[in-house]
């Protein structure tokens, strides 16, 4: 029914040793927020120039296995006319695509959301495959607060993720299943662990019911971490141990890889946490990254929309990708940051 061998080969290539994913699938609204931080107007052309800068960074294919694109980007071309997905695939980087239509208010459950986008998804996936995509992403968000999340919210999101994943596999695309427990709020690390474990158990229950082929799937979870406003922030070691503990309970070993989101952690923190987990020893799955902000923040700061800064921005991207690649082996050290400080 599903092209199992191809799905598994793609999933494994995305978590190949030393490699991880760049999430560059910001919607038009989100990329505008990112460009606002550098006082750059968001237009189709500035967005195109920025994505081309990322995708043409020399040598980054050593550390980056795949890039998640947005609908606009998968249809854009580099300056020389090459479609952006082909810019990636020619360098051995696998193009992917965000296919959800965003988290909308869950009726009857104030403060909670459910991700939409299942209607017409089969047809959209077929088109994205034609355009070169070999994997996809769907993000569900679970917020922690007073009396939330509810079981209803967790189940609604888990069910949608499972229906999305099955449609992807039918179309020959590896589904990245992303249930993100947000780090906004003042909850402690224990509460994050409890909610993340409950969410992941629900998600894998639904994936099973939907007959999703786990060997051809990747999981993109949050790390287990205290809320941003929690007075007690956990150490790197605590985050690593708590995250691995609940992943071992909830994620079947058939899943080839777990590719974390950065979710608002600083770039260095996201690298350190991934490094600590991989330094703990071998795990049933590859532990890798699918970072958006943690890979891109320093790039945007170096670029600021000025063509004269493209080389410095690419250097910043190369550097963060290299640090996260080292973290895949538990071999990242703070000295790597100094060694490669950008020439001002
Ligand atoms: P962050 O790493 O910035 O959380 O983005 C990853 C992502 O793709 C969220 O859906």
Structure characterization notes:
The protein is α/β, with parallel strands linked by helices and 344 residues long. The protein has one domain (4-338): Alpha-Beta Barrel (TIM Barrel), CATH 3.20.20. 45% of the residues lie in helices and 14% in strands. The chain is built from 13 helices and 10 strands. The protein has an 8-stranded parallel beta barrel, surrounded by 6 helices. A two-stranded antiparallel sheet has the order 4-5. Helix 8 packs parallel to helix 9 (236-250), helix 10 (267-279) runs antiparallel to helix 11 and helix 10 runs parallel beside helix 12. The longest helix is centred in the middle third of the chain and has 21 residues, at 189-209. 1,3-dihydroxyacetonephosphate (13P) binds at residues 23, 139, 178, 261-263, 291-294. 1,3-dihydroxyacetonephosphate binds at residues 23, 139, 178, 261-263, 291-294.
Please describe the topology of this protein.
Blueprint: H1 4-14, E1 20-23, H2 28-36, H3 44-55, E2 64-69, H4 71-74, H5 84-89, E3 94-98, E4 103-105, E5 113-115, H6 121-130, E6 135-142, H7 151-170, E7 174-181, H8 189-209, E8 218-219, H9 236-250, E9 257-260, H10 267-279, E10 286-291, H11 293-303, H12 310-328, H13 335-339
Parallel strand pairs: 1-2, 1-10, 2-3, 3-6, 6-7, 7-8, 8-9, 9-10
Antiparallel strand pairs: 4-5
Helix pairs in contact: 7-8, 8-9, 9-10, 10-11, 10-12, 11-12
Residues 23, 139, 178, 261-263, 291-294 line the site of 1,3-dihydroxyacetonephosphate.
């Amino acid at each position: 029914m599903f092209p199992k061998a191809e799905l598994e080969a793609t999933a494994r290539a995305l978590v190949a040793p030393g490699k991880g994913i760049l999430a560059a699938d910001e919607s038009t609204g989100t990329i505008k927020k990112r460009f606002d931080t550098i006082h750059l107007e968001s237009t189709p052309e500035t967005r195109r120039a920025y994505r081309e800068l990322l995708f043409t960074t020399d040598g980054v294919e050593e550390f980056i296995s795949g890039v998640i694109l947005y609908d606009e980007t998968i249809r854009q071309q580099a300056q020389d006319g090459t479609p952006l997905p082909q810019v990636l695939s020619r360098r051995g980087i696998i193009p992917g695509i965000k296919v959800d239509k965003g988290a909308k208010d869950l009726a009857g459950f104030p403060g909670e959301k459910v991700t939409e986008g299942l209607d017409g998804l089969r047809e959209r996936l077929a088109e994205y495959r034609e355009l070169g995509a070999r994997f996809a992403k769907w993000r569900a968000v679970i917020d922690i607060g007073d009396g939330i999340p509810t079981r209803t919210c967790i189940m609604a999101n888990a069910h949608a993720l499972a229906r999305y994943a099955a449609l992807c596999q039918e179309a020959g695309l590896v589904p990245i299943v992303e249930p993100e427990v947000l780090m906004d709020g003042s909850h402690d690390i224990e509460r994050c662990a409890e909610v993340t474990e409950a969410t992941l158990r629900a998600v894998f229950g639904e994936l099973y019911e939907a007959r999703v082929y786990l060997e051809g799937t990747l999981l993109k979870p949050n790390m287990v971490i205290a809320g941003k406003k929690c007075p007690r922030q956990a150490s790197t070691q605590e985050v690593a141990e708590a995250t691995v503990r609940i992943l071992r309970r909830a994620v079947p070993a058939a899943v080839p890889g777990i590719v974390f989101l950065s979710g608002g952690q600083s770039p260095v923190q996201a690298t350190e946490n991934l490094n600590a987990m991989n330094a703990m020893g071998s795990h049933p799955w590859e532990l890798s990254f699918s970072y958006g902000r943690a890979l891109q923040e320093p790039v945007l700061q170096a670029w600021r929309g000025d063509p004269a800064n493209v080389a410095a921005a690419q250097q910043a991207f190369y550097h963060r990708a290299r640090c996260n690649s080292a973290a895949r082996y538990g071999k990242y050290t703070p000295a790597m940051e100094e060694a490669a400080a950008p020439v001002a």
